[in-house]
Specification:
The complex is a heterodimer of chains A (55) and B (456). Chain A is of the alpha+beta class and 55 residues long. Chain A is 31% helix and 24% strand. Classes of the chains: A alpha+beta (55), B alpha/beta (456).
């Protein structure tokens, strides 16, 4: 069996999953169809309810 | 994002899609298709010199088409990886024209017009699906006339207009005004070109164009083909200048949008489209109104909705704060129609349900809080992964284990699962990571037990 994990989608969900898995010591392949990761959240200026910067 | 790019355990595969998935939990054989960027990832430093020189303008998808980028581009300035990509749909080289400026400019010699898609095979133990959502296409709602009216935008377009790194550097310039300003720029170029042509003619005949044109009009040169051409050029120049003057006069009166309306539940809680509540739109409308007010304290906002669903830690307080200190008023209504006056101001027609009156109100800009729609690619991906979709088109998960897809070893999180906001997506993403590890550990244990069984 393989211990590698495939994460499909490089938005905020995929990024968080990948980081958690990588921190747990697993090899992660993060696949994103667009040229850069970030997804919808990267398009947002700020986020509620704290008005923190999204990027 | 930077952490992902740097982490030794993460293999970042951007501009790549899943081609085929075979096998089962613990032993998936996954084929990925790495799409051709026509730029060598190993060589590109992301310096952007190619972008400066590229002559082809393309609508910028990251800015929802509100600005332009070049045919060679990085998805956005802070994007990871920063590797640039050539868009073969627009690049002159791929459309049979002479160019290759980027190739000449690139000092790293990273441009490779011959690059092809590559297939990669991986052995995978578990899969996390985090494909997100699509913004609902509001042109499906005829009464909002999204395609016809310039100053009716979606919430994500409004985000880009508000963003300091966006196409308007954060100023709320109305799309109709921006179209006029773009036309002015275009006309200026044409006028400049025209005056060059006229200067050549004036030099040739040693006469000023207006003087010549007066004589020409009086019928002095009936047979002269060359002078007829000159007259044509001058007439065209006059027409362009007149249009330019008129537009510049109009543009002098342009102001940024100060009176905003948000329409809630565009596509959601609507039985024609999605009956479910998208959950986060009430909050992002309030947030956008607060940010707009921060940018310009004269901004007045009305949020039209059936109700405001501020469900979450600190959300209700945020809503009240918006009302108290950011000039936001909340109006219970379902907008019946959007019209437009001569100045391109959208006019909302609605029933004020508390006063029981039909009202019409004029705004500078209308923002549609569009629904969270399932990703267009979900069906194809579900078929490849061999998992089911829910009746709305999101990925189906188990009732008992809400992160598990309908096949062992595959887990779903974020808006691929259902409409949820960012903090919940993050929490769910961590859950999915934990479930994926759990599934691998269970398989490992079972394998060990089998071996022990065999040995005894």
């Amino acid at each position: 069996m393989s211990k590698d994990i495939l994460v499909i989608g490089g938005g905020i969900g995929g990024i968080q999953s990948s980081l958690d898995l990588a921190e747990m010591g697993y090899k992660v392949h993060l696949v994103e169809q667009l040229p850069s990761i970030g997804g919808k959240m990267a398009q947002l200026d700020k986020t509620f309810p704290t008005n923190d910067c999204a990027i | 994002m930077l952490d992902v790019g740097r982490h030794p355990n993460i293999e970042l595969r951007a501009f790549t899609e899943v081609d085929k998935v075979e096998g089962e939990s613990g032993d998936f054989k996954v084929t990925l298709r790495k799409k051709a960027r026509y730029v060598d990832e190993a060589k590109c430093t992301g310096c952007g010199a190619c972008v400066e020189k590229c002559p082809t303008l393309v609508p910028d998808a990251f800015n929802e088409g509100l600005g332009n980028r070049k045919a060679i581009y990085s998805w956005f300035a802070q994007g990871i990886p920063s590797t640039h990509t050539i868009d073969p749909g627009y690049c002159r080289v791929f459309n049979g024209k002479k160019c290759g400026v980027c190739q000449k400019t690139c000092q790293a010699e990273a441009i490779d017009f011959e690059q092809k898609d590559q297939l990669l095979e991986l052995d995978i133990g578990a899969i996390v699906v985090a494909t997100g959502y699509d913004v609902f296409d509001p042109s499906r709602i005829p009464e909002y006339r999204y395609n016809e009216l310039d100053n009716v935008v979606t919430a994500i377009e409004f985000e880009r207009l508000l963003s300091a790194s966006g196409p308007t550097s954060g100023h709320l310039d109305r799309p109709s005004d921006r179209a006029v300003i773009a036309e002015i720029e275009d006309l200026k170029k044409q006028v400049k070109k025209g005056s060059r042509l006229l200067a050549n003619q004036e030099k040739k005949y040693e006469e000023k164009s207006p003087d010549f044109y007066a004589k020409y009009k009086a019928g002095e040169y009936p047979e002269d083909k060359e002078r007829q051409k000159w007259a044509g050029q001058y007439a065209e120049q006059l027409r362009l200048q007149e249009r330019l003057d008129a537009l510049e006069k109009k543009a002098a009166g342009f102001k940024t949008a100060k009176k905003l309306a948000f329409i809630q539940c565009v596509g959601s809680r609507d039985h024609r489209f999605y009956p479910f509540c998208s959950g986060y739109c009430c909050m992002h409308s309030i947030k956008e109104a607060i940010i707009a007010h921060e940018h310009d304290p004269e901004t007045q906002t009305t949020i039209y909705g059936m109700d405001i669903r501020a469900v979450g830690k600190g959300f209700e307080e945020y809503k009240v704060r918006g009302g108290n200190s950011s000039n936001i008023s909340y109006q219970r209504a379902r907008i019946a129609e959007i019209n437009q006056d001569k100045e391109h101001n959208p006019v909302l027609v609605y029933e004020d349900t508390r006063a029981r009156k039909i009202r019409r109100e004029k705004f500078d800009l209308v923002v549609l809080a569009t629904a969270c729609a399932p990703n267009r690619g979900n069906k194809e991906l579900a078929e490849k992964l061999g998992i089911d979709l829910s009746r709305y088109g999101f990925f189906q998960t188990s009732r008992v284990n809400p992160i598990d897809a309908t096949r062992p070893g595959i887990f779903v999180c974020g808006c691929a699962h259902s409409p949820i906001d960012i903090p919940e997506s993050v929490a769910q993403a961590s859950s999915a990571a934990a479930r994926a590890v759990q599934s691998l550990r269970t398989l490992e244990r079972e394998e060990k037990q089998k071996e022990v069984g065999k040995a005894s």
